[in-house]
């Protein structure tokens, strides 16, 4: 029983770190997409291509070639 509290603390810290990492990654991608969509120097097709490139980079980084 004496190790239960430290185990719970460790689990909580790990969960918080994982949550922070996911939040940071999603915010990064959303910032990239927002920048692509609001870039006034790009045409509509250019904006779409920029977003497509962000998705392709995500797939490359994660090893996912398609989404479920």
Straight-line N-to-C gap: 42 Å
**Structural class, from helix and strand content?**
mainly alpha
Range of helix content: over 70%
Could you spell the SSE succession in H and E letters? HH
Could you name the ranges where pLDDT drops below 50 across 5 or more consecutive residues?
none
Q: Helical stretch count?
A: 2
Mean pLDDT over the residues = 91
Strand content: under 5%
Structure commentary:
- There is one protein chain.
- With 68 residues, the protein is mainly alpha-helical.
- The chain has a domain of 38 residues.
- Helices cover 79% and strands 0% of the residues.
- The protein contains 2 helices and no strands.
- Helix 1 packs antiparallel against helix 2.
- The longest helix has 35 residues.
- It is elongated and about 60 Å long.
- It starts with a helix and ends in a 6-residue tail after the last helix.
- 0% of the residues are buried.
- The mean pLDDT is 91.
Topology, element by element:
Elements (H helix, E strand, L loop, with lengths): L3 H35 L5 H19 L6
Short account of what is shown:
The chain has 68 residues and is mainly α.
Characteristics of this structure?
2 helices
């Amino acid at each position: 029983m004496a190790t239960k509290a430290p185990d719970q603390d460790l689990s909580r810290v790990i969960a918080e770190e994982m949550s922070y990492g996911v939040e940071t990654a999603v915010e990064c991608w959303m910032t990239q997409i927002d920048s692509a969509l609001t870039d006034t120097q790009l045409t509509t097709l250019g904006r779409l291509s920029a977003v497509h490139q962000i998705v392709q980079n995500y797939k490359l980084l994660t090893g996912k070639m398609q989404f479920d």
